[in-house]
Amino acid sequence: MEIEIYDGGFGNFCAIGDETGLFICINRDHKKWYPTNDKAFASNFELVLQEKGKQYHIEFNNESIKVAGLNNPNT
User: DSSP string of 6-35?
Assistant: First the structure.
């Protein structure tokens, strides 16, 4: 995958993607969540992402991320 940084950097806050879809990532050791100032925490998630005609299965679970390419983008 070649998803680029849209804004920011990994030091504090980083938006990854483009105008049609963004991942918002923050360094939870250096930044609190705006505007509530709550302590940031990781949440498990699972998704299918399509980028340049290819599909990927992405899973974040218990502080670990797995990315797998899917063979058939129509499923």
Answer: EEE-TTSEEEEEETTEEEEEE-TTT-PBTT
Separation between Cα atoms, residue 34 and residue 26, nearest integer Å = 10
62-74 residue pLDDT tens: 989 999 988 765 5
Summarised one tens digit per residue, pLDDT across range 12-60 is 889 998 888 888 888 888 878 888 999 888 889 999 988 888 899 999 9
**Gap between the Cα atoms of 36 and 3, Å rounded:** 29
- In degrees and rounded to multiples of 5, residue 49 shows phi and psi of -115, 135
Instruction: Answer whether the bond into residue 35 is a cis peptide, omega within 30°.
Output: yes
DSSP secondary-structure letter at 39? P
